Amino acid sequence: MKHTSAEFAQLLQALSNDIVDAHIHWRMASDIAKALCDHPLVAAQSNTFWYLTHKAHVAAALQCLARAYDQEQSSLHLLSWLQIIRDNQPIFDVAEFRVRLQDNPFVESLAKSAERPDARTLEEDIARCHSTDPAVNLLVRYRGSRAAHRSKRLALKPQTASTNDLADPDVEVLLDRAKTVFNRYSYMFSAATYSTSVVGRDDYKYIFSAVEAAVQRGRSLGEA
């Protein structure tokens, strides 16, 4: 299907939401898990809250990541987005680039490096976002048996889901791949890349330090 530059920009923005949100929620889950290990006193005070908070961030991260690597033909995801790029090469031409960035004062210097995506690299990226890739296949299977659907087989025999299950290192690989691939073509299209961090991502540290200080202060008063 052919798309205009304006339509592709909309697709790019929509896909960025899943990729960026997946990173934000996964990093928050990882940071909270580490903080709970570093502050056992705080964990003991509100274990249920932190358990559910960590679990919610993991679920949100995997949901966004699964959407980014979805394989449904009619949906927007990395694979279909890359195929759109392959079928709409003219939108990456210098003339189109200049129109898109006409309000950018540096458009002329940026246009000097504007070019169509390298065909070989694009095909490699498409392959790395396809379910035939081992890591992507793990995520697709996780979504189909645990996230979007609940496998009756695994419910009856949960012990069978050990060796081929999605693990943290697999998630890290897929997150990094999604960011690299997405930003590669985002920069070619608009001379811009997307940050996968968020302002205030360290706010949880204040909560941990404040709770720990309050508990320590309460204990010292009790001993006195």
Q: Which helices and strands occur, and which strands form pairs?
A:
Blueprint: H1 5-38, H2 40-45, H3 47-68, H4 78-87, H5 94-100, H6 107-111, H7 119-128, H8 134-147, H9 152-156, H10 168-190, H11 203-223
Nutshell version of this structure?
The chain has 224 residues and is mostly helical.
| First-to-last CA distance | 75 Å
- What fraction strand? under 5%
Q: Point out poorly predicted stretches.
A: none
Instruction: Please bin the fraction of helical residues.
Output: over 70%
N-to-C SSE series?
HHHHHHHHHHH
Mean pLDDT: 93
Morphology: flat
What is the CA-based Rg, rounded?
22 Å
The largest sheet is: none
| Total of helices | 11
Q: What structural class is derived from the secondary structure elements? A: mainly alpha
As an assembly, this protein is single chain
The total count of strands amounts to 0
Describe the structure.
This protein is mainly α. Helices cover 70% and strands 0% of the residues.
Observed structural traits:
mainly alpha; 224 residues
